[in-house]
Amino acid sequence: MSTDRDTSLRADARRNRDQIVDAAKTVFQEQGPEVPMEEIARRAGVGVGTLYRRFPDRDSLIGAVARDSFGRVRDEVRAVTAKEPGAWETVARLLAYSREMRVMVQLGFSERARTIKSHDPFVRGIQEELTDLLDRLVVTAQEEGTLRPDIGSGDFSVLLSLLVRHLPAAQEELADMVLHRATAVILDGLRTPGGPLPGRALTAPEVL
Amino acid sequence: MSTDRDTSLRADARRNRDQIVDAAKTVFQEQGPEVPMEEIARRAGVGVGTLYRRFPDRDSLIGAVARDSFGRVRDEVRAVTAKEPGAWETVARLLAYSREMRVMVQLGFSERARTIKSHDPFVRGIQEELTDLLDRLVVTAQEEGTLRPDIGSGDFSVLLSLLVRHLPAAQEELADMVLHRATAVILDGLRTPGGPLPGRALTAPEVL
Amino acid sequence: MSTDRDTSLRADARRNRDQIVDAAKTVFQEQGPEVPMEEIARRAGVGVGTLYRRFPDRDSLIGAVARDSFGRVRDEVRAVTAKEPGAWETVARLLAYSREMRVMVQLGFSERARTIKSHDPFVRGIQEELTDLLDRLVVTAQEEGTLRPDIGSGDFSVLLSLLVRHLPAAQEELADMVLHRATAVILDGLRTPGGPLPGRALTAPEVL
Amino acid sequence: MSTDRDTSLRADARRNRDQIVDAAKTVFQEQGPEVPMEEIARRAGVGVGTLYRRFPDRDSLIGAVARDSFGRVRDEVRAVTAKEPGAWETVARLLAYSREMRVMVQLGFSERARTIKSHDPFVRGIQEELTDLLDRLVVTAQEEGTLRPDIGSGDFSVLLSLLVRHLPAAQEELADMVLHRATAVILDGLRTPGGPLPGRALTAPEVL
DNA sequence: AATGAATGAGATTTCATTCAT
DNA sequence: TATGAATGAAATCTCATTCAT
Question: Residue B53's CB: how many other CB atoms inside 10 A?
Answer without folding.
Answer: 13
